[in-house]
Amino acid sequence: MSTTTAPTRLLSPDELEAALRAIGAERYHNLHPFHRALHDGKLHKAQVQAWALNRYYYQARIPAKDATLLARLPTTELRREWRRRVEDHDGTSPETGGIARWLKLTDGLGLDRAYVESLEGLLPTTRFAVDAYVHFVGERPILEAIASSLTELFSPTIISERVSGMLRNYNFITEETLAYFKPRLTQAPQDSAFALAYVKEHARTPEQQQAVLAALRFKCDVLWSMLDALDYSYVLPGRIPPGAFRPDTTA
Ligand SMILES: O=C(O)c1cc(C(=O)O)c2c(n1)C(=O)C(=O)c1cc(C(=O)O)[nH]c1-2
């Protein structure tokens, strides 16, 4: 039996934007039960530690994925725009930038810095998911690589919810430990506005538009699977994989 797929038509730039936003409304990781529990104060400190430790790997690899893309970009203007992202995360001197601020969060949660940076305690899925994102951006066409960053369209909302929810619900969380997130509220809209305008201008065929939508779905899957792994390993009893962070022995 043969199956036929209806040919996809060319969307207007605004229809493409609406289709991208619909993917976020359906699949972004704000909808994941682990995030709901994190923000609503339903987790123990050890589970919050596991989230921060695993998410450190995402933060640490973001500037590497951006540098990979930077090297492939064809114009000065594009490289200048993308270089800013690398600086936002790596900083321009020691103790500045997003990675340093994320380590303030893991410090504030009582995790040993050398242990966090060693990556020894990561869940296997965290490593696989983050590495898949870095490879995607290194290997796919530039249009898709840029489109995969578009989850940032949706991040200011989840970050605002997270900061207010965690401050309200956990006595071990302070404004200082959550300092990572404040600059993201201005950086992410700047980043995503540029990426969205780029994608709307350069996705000019139905195939390119479908590839852009698939890139955003892929990225939502990366973020979702990281939370699935945390949920499975640290919410269900007796599921922590061998070698992964064990709250009682390493915190
Ligand atoms: O806290 C979050 O929920 C969240 C989500 C995302 C995202 O949607 O990819 C990013 C970030 N934070 C973030 O802090 C960040 O630096 C970042 C960079 C990127 C990217 O794809 O280039 N996404 C995100």
Automatic annotation (TrEMBL):
The answer to whether the entry has keyword Oxidoreductase is: yes
A Gene Ontology biological process in which this protein takes part is: pyrroloquinoline quinone biosynthetic process
| Pathway(s) annotated for this protein in UniProt | Cofactor biosynthesis; pyrroloquinoline quinone biosynthesis
**The protein's enzyme class:** oxidoreductase
Show the GO MF annotations.
Answer: pyrroloquinoline-quinone synthase activity
- Keywords, comma-separated and alphabetical: Oxidoreductase, PQQ biosynthesis
The EC number(s) given in the record are 1.3.3.11
Pfam families the UniProt entry points to: TENA_THI-4 (PF03070)
Q: Which reaction does it catalyse?
A: 6-(2-amino-2-carboxyethyl)-7,8-dioxo-1,2,3,4,7,8-hexahydroquinoline-2,4-dicarboxylate + 3 O2 = pyrroloquinoline quinone + 2 H2O2 + 2 H2O + H(+)
- Domain Thiaminase-2/PQQC spans what residues? 18-228
Recorded hits in InterPro entries, A to Z, give: Haem_Oase-like_multi-hlx, PqqC, PqqC-like, Thiaminase-2/PQQC
**What job does this protein perform?**
Ring cyclization and eight-electron oxidation of 3a-(2-amino-2-carboxyethyl)-4,5-dioxo-4,5,6,7,8,9-hexahydroquinoline-7,9-dicarboxylic-acid to PQQ.
Per the similarity annotation, which family is this? Belongs to the PqqC family.
What is the protein's name according to its record? Pyrroloquinoline-quinone synthase
What is the organism of origin for this protein?
Acetobacter peroxydans
Which gene codes for it? pqqC
